[in-house]
Amino acid sequence: MRAACDARLVDIIRVGNTLGESVAWDELQQQLWWTDIQERRLYRYDPKRVELTHYLLPQRLGSFGFVENSERLIAAFESGFALYDPRSGALEWVARPEHAGPNMRFNDGRVDRQGRFWAGSMTEGEAEPRGRLYCLTRSQARVRLSDIAIANSICFSADGRYLYFADTPQRAIRRYELDPCEGTLSNGHIFARTPQGSFPDGSNLDAQGHLWNAHWGGGCIVRYDPQGRVSGEIEVPVSQPTCITFGGPRLDLLFVTSARAGLTPAALAAQPHAGDVLVYSVSVCGLSDARYSGVP
């Protein structure tokens, strides 16, 4: 990794996901969670025990967040928001806003610093970009952005004042001012652009305020400073990294999910770790994920 910090590949969790996504670190349990969207599976990995568990899901799961004082997850399934208990399979629908068109599902999401859950929808296949970005508080899912092709890169500054977001095909990560009380967005502008052939997927911020983004198609994780300038880059052994999170006892491990979807047999042969979770030791620390507090 060039520039401001170093990275070293220390482990590979061999799962061969079709579309690994929404990776998140549970700091309380010291466990890693992620979803394989297309296979309707949720994964939990305990690094201390080297124990991998997966749960079969009732629908495709685009993203999720941890819940305060609960073992349930706040989940953005393909058709809406629900509180989901992986261990029992219990599912409680919270809000199911009607999609704006056919062939749509929920995709990327994250809990903000105030405890609200944000998730965006996307259009699958060739269709008009009718996705929306929602902010969920209790049982109310309010639309904050519209006309989205593929919602991605949702993350928040440490002070909760800014939201980062990308409509992936546009190859631009945008930053919005976020009203901490109302959950409304304003003054959106382009924070960073990705190169031709690289599309912004999942993002997260480190303790220094730098944003890390998985470049789908670009085979790398890029770090941006608070002004949107590249401050580091990790070349990864897969062409389709999808999402990242910081974890470990000191939050100095970087976990990277990836995808096999759409790769040719030749590409899969050249990328034996496509679909696996890559683990890097990095020289900076991440931020703890916030937990959802809007339980009805």
Walkthrough of the structure:
It is a single chain. The protein is mainly β. The chain has one domain: TolB, C-terminal domain (Neuraminidase), CATH 2.120.10. The chain is built from 1 helix and 24 strands. The strands form 6 sheets. Strands 1-24-23-22 form a 4-stranded antiparallel sheet, with no helix packed on it. A 4-stranded antiparallel sheet has the order 2-3-4-5, with no helix packed on it. The radius of gyration is 17 Å and the shape is globular. It starts with 6 loop residues before the first strand and ends in a 14-residue tail after the last strand.
Question: Portion of residues in helices?
Answer: under 10%
Span of the ends, CA to CA: 44 Å
The CATH class name reads Mainly Beta
Mean pLDDT: 96
CATH 4th-level superfamily: TolB, C-terminal domain
Low-confidence stretches: none
The CATH topology is given as Neuraminidase
> What share of the residues does DSSP label as strand, in percent?
over 45%
The number of strands is 24
Radius of gyration: 17 Å
| Tally of individual helices | 1
As an assembly, this protein is: single chain
Net shape? globular
Write the CATH architecture name: 6 Propeller
Work out the count of structural domains: 1
Q: Give the neighbour order of strands across the main sheet.
A: 1-24-23-22
- Helices and strands, in order, run as EEEEEEEEEEEEEEEEEEEEEEEHE
Supply the helix-strand structural class: mainly beta
Q: What can be said about the biggest beta sheet?
A: 4 strands, antiparallel
